[in-house]
Amino acid sequence: MAKEDLTIRIGGEGGEGIISTGDFIAAIAAKAGNNILTFKTFPAEIKGGYAMYQVRISDEKVMCEGDGFNIIVAFNGDAYEANKKFLKEGDVFVYDGPGGNFEPEEHPGVTMYGVPMSKIAKQDLGVYRSKNMVCLGALSGLFDLDFDLLKQFIQDKFGKKGQEIVDINIKALEAGRDHCKNNLTKTDNYRIPKSEKKDMIIISGNDAAGLGGIAAGVEFFSCYPITPATEVAYFTADHIYKTGGTFVQAEDEIACLANVLGASFAGKRAMTSTSGPGISLMSEMIGMSSMSETPLVIVGVQRGGPATGLPTKHEQSDLFICAHGGHGDAPRIILSAEDVQECYELTIEAFELAEKYQVPVFMLSDGSMGFRTESIPRPDMKAAKRARRKHFGSVKEGEKFKRYAITDDNISPVAYPGDKGGRHIAPGLEHNESGAPNFDPVNRKKMMDKRMDKVANIENEYKKAEFEGDDQNDIGLIAWGSTQGCVREAVKRLRAKGKKVAALYPKMIWPLPVNQINEFASKCKKVMVPEVNYQGQFAEIISSKTDINPIKYNIYAGMPFTPDEMCQKVEEVIA
Ligand code: COA
Description:
alpha/beta, Pyruvate-ferredoxin Oxidoreductase, domain 3, Rossmann fold, seven-stranded mixed sheet
């Protein structure tokens, strides 16, 4: 178990600078050599409502958000009300007071520090906006946050807003630190730990997916902005010039995927990012990609649905639409990332698979992972493969290029517009080997089989799902997406207690790795699939493709699982 495991949570009103405050703490902790994982949740409004930011700090890799907090900072009464039930003996509670908008109750065993953040910011400094920096100043004194680094962060973050904004925020930082020095006596033992420095970067899941695209050599990116996926596009827009690529913001998601398809037809590595409502709109073009065998990569950052649903909240409920969305039988591949590092790695793999199999490939992430930051080893971008589809080369004199030629592996070599002898159409209509529309029953069957068979055995060609456990287990958990991190932590805890628990972590979830799941199930008395959606979408897919009928464990309240609740459920099921 980790020597250090500290979680700091900050709660307040959206627009009060909670996110900036948390980002600064996370950056300080990471610079001190720690591993970090952050978690943010906020309402869909730009201002108002309860916003929360949490950073978990450890000397080991942090696998998930964890079970709660050790230190909570409440900027207002709403944050206090939302969190007071979780306060436990040994915790530290820092709050806006006296003079804030609430008076906390007594909490036996909890160390309480009042910092009049609002009062200092409003009355002493005359800038209420700087309240968060007053708070940070106080926290720097209480928990040993590097003060000089904080000043540097203020300069870096607010410099573009003007030097007077920087100066007032540094004043606020100093005022908070001085208040702490002159008025508070530290009685708890928490501090930001210091670990051995490693070559790590701090990056969000969305930025990591964007970075993966750049590493894979994305040459064309089109998007329509949507929470919680927009940052993938922001990141790409900032960096795509490095691949000589083009970025286009479209008028909607239908046009966006049409742009991506057109660029891919022209031979460019092409990609988009979106979330559930965007995937709904893209369904027609996804089918076009499958039918015309034009590769594309879609980073899908899931949020709560249906309709506009929960734009800023976490859910894993787009699996069905990614696997089945659209009309007809259309092959596609779905990868699902476990953590921020995999948002990077699987985006690169998504390109490899798309280019190799000439199909649409989803790299599924989710709201909590897209927004969260983690410290990850600095990626070696030069080592990333820059995949290219199989090219036809040339045709002999008098021969005609067959874009959809039947081959041994069902993958037909491509030609790009302008290639000598490679003229063809990439139709949405059923077609013959040359690409000409053709509705003959024999041809139809042949072409449908070819498209579907390309990926039918992909399980044997892609890396194996990770397994942890013994030859015989009382229960096996199959997890996908960011739920894998929580399952890993729960399995570690349960196995440390001697429980016979196993887990399978598939990264390619569609086509389903049927053989690996069957083999896993044969080692487990019971199989359970925890996922953050109502229907148990992955469990349903497993039931439909295997003889296994997994126990469904579903939550759908806009939050990820916690390891504690996962352990409790497992113990209940095997009792
Ligand atoms: N001095 C000056 N500026 C400050 C500051 C300070 N002390 N502290 C924060 N700020 C600025 C930040 O730089 C940021 O400005 P920017 O947008 O120009 O970068 C802004 O104030 C907000 O602060 P931040 O810390 O980033 O966020 P927050 O904790 O106040 O929360 C959100 C705001 C994130 C909840 C909210 O703005 C938001 O984005 N909500 C979601 C909207 C959405 O996606 N809806 C869905 C639509 S379908």
